[in-house]
Specification:
Elements: E1 2-4, H1 7-19, E2 24-29, H2 35-47, E3 50-55, H3 75-84, E4 89-91, H4 95-99, H5 117-120, H6 124-139, E5 143-147, H7 151-163, E6 169-173, H8 193-198, H9 201-215, H10 220-234, E7 237-245, E8 258-267, E9 270-279
Parallel strand pairs: 1-4, 2-3, 2-5, 3-4, 5-6
Antiparallel strand pairs: 7-8, 8-9
Helix pairs in contact: 6-7, 9-10
The structure holds adenosine-5'-triphosphate, pantoate and beta-alanine.
Pathway: Cofactor biosynthesis; (R)-pantothenate biosynthesis; (R)-pantothenate from (R)-pantoate and beta-alanine: step 1/1
GO biological process, one term: pantothenate biosynthetic process
Subunit structure: Homodimer.
Length: 282
């Protein structure tokens, strides 16, 4: 595996692959890799001849008081995992390499970026869209792989790619879970043993909401309220729990058939997110 921290080296590697006619896939990450990330790599390898991965804890997507400094950085272990997985190129840029010292341009996907996680983390999705746009311009992959665990992020990136005519196909990858149902996430590492016992209840609340939708007995806001109470009683501080339309992530009503239930909740100092898709089409 080639490892580099410079944009020029990435461009040169990609140019060589292109000249050989290779199809190129890209997987952006913030490191502290787990099996969820490796699933993205595996899917990328199935669809491309060459796979590039980035590890970059992007400061512009963290708000004041969030965990940018504390975010787990495990470079040596991550490199080993990616090498073992047969990744071709690892890009590990510094903040200076990505942003220089005078960056003035921000990519902002309006409306979508202010809902849900964007409402609690102002500016977060501008940081995500900007850095992903930059990575796509640096690597110029044929396909980019993103996890469905970060469902709103996936929607923001897809909208950006479409609106800005970026020539890349974005492929979603299903959420990898513990046997308890807990979605794998680097931030699970912040949880205490007691919190780890409670954390799967977030997914259980999503499953209960899905079952409630499919049974069709209650309105969506009643299901949302029940989930919030269930999570509070379990020890979470819920941020949002919302039955949405997949297309624009706005609140769903009974006519909508392609739904996603989105949730975020704090457990101690850890903010967890998860979601579940539901189709009510007959
Ligand atoms: N459990 C998972 N299953 C599938 N993909 C995942 C999973 N967790 C993260 N990903 C995807 O991996 C990519 C990189 O995510 P990131 O490095 O932020 O990991 P993370 O575990 O989500 O970290 P965090 O705890 O900060 O949210 C994203 O596209 C994300 O959706
Ligand atoms: C897409 C991403 C790598 C951008 O920094 C990050 O938000 C993540 O890891 O999900
Ligand atoms: N996986 C999402 C990145 C973030 O929370 O900043």
């Amino acid at each position: 595996m080639q490892v580099t921290d410079t944009i020029i080296n990435v461009r040169n590697a990609v140019k060589t692959w292109r000249m050989a006619g290779a199809r190129i896939a890209f997987v952006p990450t913030m490191g502290n890799l787990h099996i969820g990330h490796l699933k993205l790599v595996e899917e990328a390898q199935k669809s491309a001849d060459r796979v590039a991965v980035s590890i970059f804890v992007n400061p512009t997507q963290f708000g004041v008081g969030e965990d940018f400094e504390a975010y787990p950085r495990t470079e040596a272990e991550d490199k080993q995992k990616l090498d073992d997985a047969g990744v071709d190129l690892l890009f590990l840029p510094s903040v200076g390499e990505m942003y220089g010292n005078d960056a003035k341009t921000v990519v902002s996907v309006k409306n979508l970026s202010n809902l849900h996680c964007g409402a609690s983390r102002p500016g977060h999705f501008d940081g995500v869209a900007t850095v992903v746009c930059k990575f796509l311009n640096i690597v110029q992959p044929d396909i980019g792989f993103l996890g469905q665990k970060d469902f709103q992020q996936l929607a923001v990136i897809r909208k950006m790619v479409n609106d800005l005519n970026i020539p890349v196909e974005i492929r979603p990858v299903e959420t990898v879970r513990e046997s308890s149902g807990l979605a794998l996430s680097s931030r699970n590492g912040y949880l205490s043993p007691e919190e780890l016992r409670v954390a799967p209840k977030l997914y259980q609340a999503l499953c209960a909401a899905r079952d409630g939708i499919l049974m069709g007995k209650k309105g969506y806001s009643a299901l949302e309220d029940e989930a919030v109470i269930y999570l509070q009683e379990a020890g979470f501080v819920p941020d949002y729990f919302s039955v949405c339309r997949v297309g624009d992530l706005l609140k769903a009503d009974k006519q909508d058939t392609d739904l996603v239930v989105l949730a975020a909740a704090k457990l101690g100092r850890t903010r967890l997110i998860d979601n579940i898709r539901v189709s009510t089409a007959r």
